[in-house]
Design a protein that fits this description.
Blueprint (H helix, E strand, L loop, with lengths): L1 H15 L1 H18 L1 H8 L30 H37 L1 H16 L2 H10 L9 H4 L2 H14 L3 H14 L3 H8 L4 H12 L1 H24 L11 H8 L8 H28 L7
Helix pairs in contact: 1-14, 2-4, 2-14, 3-4, 4-5, 4-8, 4-9, 4-11, 4-12, 9-11, 9-12, 10-11, 12-13, 12-14, 13-14
Length: 300
Amino acid sequence: MIAANGRGTAWARLVSHRLAWVSLIFLAVMIALSLAAPLIAGLRGIDPTQTDLFRRFEPPSAQFWLGTDDLGRDLLQRLLDGGRVSLLVGVSGALLSAVLGAFIGVVAGYLGGRLDAFLMRLTDGVISLPLLPLLIVLAAVDPRKIGVPTEIAQSETFSLYRIVFIVGLTGWTTVARLVRAETLSLKARDFTRAAQSLGATPARIMFRHILPNAAGSLLVATTMSVGALVLLESTLSFLGLGIQPPAASWGNMLTGAQELLQEAPVLALWPGLLIFLTVIAFNFVGDGLQDALDPRSERR
């Protein structure tokens, strides 16, 4: 009964956070539309990858709701396809970072000693590296030179998974330090000592008792990192090192529009606006979750 009331109170605090609630609705609509992009294209009878140079830069119409791009492709469908890729990279990269960071953080905090010192110095070393140059170097590595077959290296699926792995590999440090701090606090609690006295193994205590009690902070950190990873993916794609055409992402749509700002500024406006709104929305949702899960926090 107490747990149910606690969940209800947390939900009420989240709903009362207006910016978080509006952001959550926006993200739900954006994710639903992006996932339904192939269905929407089929219902409209439009192939977003088909080029038609006779229909370049057409204005919005009944057939092309947001107009067409420089190759005559439907802009709305390209935005939805790009949203599916960008959001997939952001969410998958954040989940990968959360899993890696949670494992390192709970092991370092609970076991302590030299292992804790080594893992935290490793975390500090990764944090000290300049993020964008590191991502550029990792993304610029030719996978064919490390033994990946050419047909796999040039596939769209491999390009997508590669970007997810790169952004996830560099985003775990904040989660690791947060979980370690939570673990240091939780391992001194009575329920942890009771589990130790009953003979529970360190692995069981870490993953069955400590991590579930640190789930609130972990959820907030993961949510707030999604926006940052969407922005990183867009940056890499804008630089030509991320998702490669003809696959669409908001970042490479900006790359294609940068030379057409005077002729067709709307081609840069829409993907740039969606990147901005998505990053801000994830940050507001993370802020709302932090207030909802921590009754002691004071909302501004």
